[in-house]
Each structure stands twice: as structure tokens, then as C-alpha cells.
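FORM 12-B: Structure-to-Sequence Request
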């Protein structure tokens, strides 16, 4: 079996990727410092607890398990926090990724899949967003991910590393078998926040901005089921192993959903009514982001299977119903 080192494999997307890897016949080995991840989300292979900025630790793990590929999810990923504390983002995301890339180079691992983001584009100049759109991030989070993408491209040219940068739009939902879900502390994402509010005794939800140039005035995003995102990563490994050219891929559905539409779905899926309040915009939030994901379809054969906002929100509701402390 091909071993894959999965950094951040105890986190939301990384843990779903481990399940997808295992189902595809790969052998995931997780490295996670558990600062945000959960040890009980690591179910498909060993967990090595440590920090990717520690090269001695990385070399020890790589020497022991001899992975043939790396999927790199370990990162800080909240836009607002990155504005308030950029040092944390440059350290975790840039120093961490460069330390990992050096360990990959020294140990002659050929294949590297990066968890990247549509935040590398900044405010889009046209929609839907194509992979070759200008990349002008407006947050330190987006800037750090773009810096790592540049490093990957340069490592590819100079050292022959095969890489894929997966630029997610909004990862959402939960494992359809109920084995994994989204647990961020603190939570800032619209779907888990709205579900938690709906299932609570105080179902208040704050919509951040009602004056965007969108059909209902709330911000529009492209929500993709996390299992589909995980599937795309496995496909990227297969593609590179088959000789595919290193590249960046948008992971989106091409369909925009507004915050108000998300809240309607949460109310439908929970059967509870939300007390919706309107607040000012969140700094750094573009009005609309949705992807042109034709490249992932053409080169990876990737077609999101869990489409439709009720499917995505419904899977998250089901996970929360089983896992929320009463
Ligand atoms: N949002 C909101 N209320 C909240 C949290 C988020 O209205 O309590 C909005 C946010 O302003 C954005 C959308 O929901 O327009 C998606 O935000 P999220 O943080 O889930 O993902 P992002 O697009 O920022 O990665």
C-alpha cells in the first residue's frame, strides 16, 4: 500500500481526506500538533503528535514510515484572525510549510498536495473565478497560502517536486456515515454557527452584511461538500502518479449560495426557526466568490457528488445532532 503523510489529518478536511485515502487503498499517516485537531478524528492510520515547524520530528516520522506522498493540511485558516495576528499565520503557514518542504526534499518524496484556498485570489475581477485569475490576496491568510504555492512551483522547477495546489472555496458538511464532522474552537463558519444556534435555546444568528451587491444583499459563496474535497485530493495524487503536470485546481461547484439561503436551508434541515439579525459587514469579506472548477473536472475527473445546499447542510445537521453536547 502507498503511504501518504497527512499533516493536519486530525482536523476537519484532513480527517475526511484520511478516510478517502483509506477507501482508495492508500495508507494515511497523520502528523498533527493537536492545537486545533482532534485525536479521535484520526481513525484510518497512526497519529504522530508534533509540529511541522520541527524538522527533527518530521525527519523522524518520514524515516520511520517512508511515505511516498504528502498531503499538507496543517495550517491556521481563519481570515479575521490572520488580520489580527499575522505573525501566527506566517509562522504556522509559511515557516511550517517550508520546513515540511525541506523535509520532503531531503527525504526524496516526490508528490505533494497542498491545501490552498480561494483567498489567494482576493477580490475577484470576474466571476466565476478561473485558476489563472489574478491573485491579489487581501488577508495575511491568503498571502501565506499564496507564498506556499510560489514555493511549490519553484521546488517543482528546481528539484522536480510534483505538486498540486487545491484551492478550496467553502468546505462544508460532514461525513455521510456520521464518522466525522466540523469542530472548530472558536467556530467562525456560517454553517456550523447557524446549526449550533438553531439547535440551541437561543437561536440568534447574525448575518454579517445585508448591503452587498448580490440578489438578496447577503454575501455569496461556493459551498462544496468536504467529502468531495477529500475525493479531489486522492484524485490529485493519482493524477500526479500517472504523470500529470503539476498544477493548481479550484475546488468549487460553480454555484453561489447567499448567507440568507444558507439560513433557509438550516431552518429546513433542523425544523427550527432562527432569529436572524443583521450586522455590519465583516472586514475582508468579498461580496461574491464562486469557482469555475472545469479544470479539476477535466484533469482529475472530479465531479462533486454531494451537491445541493440541503444535502450539504443536512449532513452537517445530522452530525451535530449526534455530537452536540445536550
Ligand atoms: N457569516 C455571517 N455570519 C457569521 C459568520 C459568517 O453572515 O456569523 C458570513 C460571512 O460574512 C461570509 C459567509 O458567511 O460572507 C461565509 O463565511 P465563512 O466564515 O463561513 O467562510 P469564508 O467565506 O469567510 O471562508
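FORM 12-B RESPONSE
SEQUENCE OUT:
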Amino acid at each position: 500500500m502507498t503511504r501518504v503523510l497527512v499533516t493536519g489529518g486530525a482536523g476537519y478536511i484532513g480527517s475526511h481526506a484520511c478516510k478517502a485515502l483509506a477507501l482508495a487503498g492508500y495508507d494515511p499517516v497523520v502528523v498533527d500538533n493537536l492545537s486545533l485537531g482532534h485525536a479521535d478524528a484520526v481513525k484510518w492510520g497512526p497519529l504522530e503528535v508534533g509540529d511541522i515547524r520541527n524538522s527533527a520530528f518530521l525527519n523522524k516520522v518520514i524515516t520511520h514510515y517512508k511515505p511516498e506522498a504528502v498531503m499538507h493540511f496543517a495550517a491556521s485558516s481563519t481570515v479575521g484572525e490572520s488580520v489580527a495576528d499575522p505573525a501566527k499565520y506566517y509562522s504556522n503557514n509559511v515557516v511550517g510549510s517550508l520546513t515540511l518542504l525541506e523535509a520532503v526534499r531531503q527525504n526524496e518524496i516526490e508528490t505533494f498536495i497542498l491545501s490552498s484556498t480561494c483567498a489567494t485570489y482576493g477580490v475577484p475581477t470576474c466571476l466565476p473565478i478561473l485558476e489563472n485569475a489574478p491573485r491579489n490576496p487581501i488577508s495575511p491568510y491568503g498571502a501565506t497560502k499564496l507564498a506556499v504555492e510560489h514555493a511549490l512551483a519553484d521546488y517543482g522547477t528546481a528539484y522536480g517536486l510534483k505538486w498540486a495546489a487545491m484551492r478550496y472555496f467553502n468546505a462544508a458538511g460532514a461525513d455521510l456515515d456520521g464518522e466525522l464532522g466540523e469542530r472548530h474552537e472558536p467556530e467562525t463558519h456560517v454553517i456550523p454557527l447557524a446549526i449550533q444556534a438553531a439547535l440551541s435555546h437561543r437561536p440568534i444568528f447574525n448575518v454579517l452584511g445585508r448591503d452587498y451587491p448580490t440578489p438578496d444583499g447577503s454575501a455569496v459563496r461556493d459551498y462544496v461538500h468536504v467529502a468531495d474535497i477529500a475525493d479531489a485530493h486522492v484524485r490529485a495524487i493519482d493524477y500526479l502518479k500517472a504523470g500529470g503536470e503539476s498544477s493548481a485546481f479550484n475546488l468549487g461547484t460553480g454555484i453561489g449560495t447567499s448567507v440568507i439561503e444558507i439560513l433557509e436551508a438550516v431552518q429546513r434541515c433542523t425544523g427550527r426557526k432562527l432569529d436572524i439579525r443583521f450586522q455590519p459587514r465583516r472586514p475582508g469579506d468579498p461580496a461574491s466568490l464562486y469557482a469555475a472548477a472545469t479544470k479539476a473536472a477535466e484533469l482529475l475527473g472530479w465531479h462533486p457528488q454531494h451537491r445541493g445546499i440541503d444535502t450539504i447542510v443536512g449532513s452537517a445537521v445530522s452530525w451535530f445532532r449526534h455530537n452536540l453536547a445536550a
